[in-house]
Amino acid sequence: MKLSGQSSDPKTKTHYNNCLSNFGANEGALGEVSETQQLLKSGDYNWVNMCASTIMSDVDDCISGNSLGTPPFQDASELPKYAGVVTQVAQIILILTNFLLN
Fold first, then answer.
1. Rg (CA), the chain
2. What InterPro entries does UniProt report for this protein, alphabetically (predicted)?
3. 56 or 18, greater pLDDT
4. How far is CA 55 from CA 69, 76, 85, in A?
5. Which of 13, 22, 52, 88 is the most exposed place for a label (fewest CB within 10 A)?
């Protein structure tokens, strides 16, 4: 939310508000992380795998910031760097769950 408040450009504000939704606890990556924790405890590795994929999709939706037919958003903030770390963690979860499923 801080990034959204730092800009007066409506396109930038919209992008960061969309990212907030993509990372949010209700329908975003944070909600998926919470669900993933519960699924790991229950041993449901197929669903853990699905949740990790959804986390990566949510992050990608934020970072690309493009709607159908529009160019990607050029984000000069630190957000893409930190979002990349979230993606890497989700990739590690995918690798581990694939190993546990075999």
1. 15
2. Invertase/methylesterase_inhib, PCW_Enzyme_Inhibitor
3. 56
4. 23, 22, 12
5. 88
Give 47-86 pLDDT, tens digit per residue: 999 999 999 998 988 888 765 556 778 888 888 899 999 9
Instruction: Enumerate the domain spans of the chain.
Output: 2-101
CA distance 35 to 70: 32
In the chain, the percentage of residues whose pLDDT exceeds 90 is 30
Nearest CA to 17 out of 2, 32, 34, 36 is that of 2
- Tokens 């959804």: give the residue: 54
Ramachandran assignment for 69, one of left (phi > 0), alpha (psi -120 to 50 degrees), beta (any other): left
CA distances from 79 to 16, 39, 40, 55, 83 (A): 9, 28, 28, 15, 6
- Whether CATH 1.10.10.10 fits 2-101: no
